[in-house]
Write a structure and sequence with these properties.
Pfam families: DUF4197. The protein has 215 residues and is mainly alpha-helical. It has helices at 4-16, 25-47, 52-55, 66-78, 85-98, 101-110, 125-153, 159-162, 169-197, 204-207. It has ten helices and no strands. The longest helix is centred in the middle third of the chain and has 29 residues, at 125-153.
Amino acid sequence: MISRKTFAATAAVLALALVGAPASAQVGGSAIKSMLGQASDSALDQLSKPGAFSADQAIAIALPGGKGVGDLMNLASKAGLTGDINGSLNRAAEQAAAQAKPIFRAAIDKATLNDAVGALRGDTGATDYLKKSTGPEIAAQLKPLVQAALQSSGVLKQTSQLSALGFNDAKLTDYVTGKTSDGIFTYVGREETKMRQNPLETGKNLLQGMKGLKF
């Protein structure tokens, strides 16, 4: 028995196959939003788990400045001069991700898909479209979540130790917010790619005829 959520995702991907026809543009826009909603929910579920950001080198957050800065901060941490700053930055991103579903859902609902067909190009076309059109707005709404997480972790209390590296509260918050947003969009894109390549683990027989289509 296919669940309502599974059926909705299946219907969305099936509708995407028809979006090339002018008459189906509205349906296509709705299908894209449905797919993005499913993709963002799945991405945020993954990224809200402990260690999710730090475990993936593609999105792990470290203080800028390269390996030299990282080594310096590791030594400072071991000497008890600072806490595990990089670990705290990644945990802040995870905490923000855990609260970000309403932000992404609202952005997706408000998105104006003037170029529905364009949003279908490439494996991450819809995600790229969303990031381009709503990325700054999403980042602005993520910022208070990141700031609160950094504050509770105690990292912002260590900015005096980081001042020599050019950091202050505002710069560190902006930096981590940008990295958090980038990481989330990376995962949304991965989920979109999975849905395009194999929309659902279940219901494969229903989608068998779509295998030759390029969205």
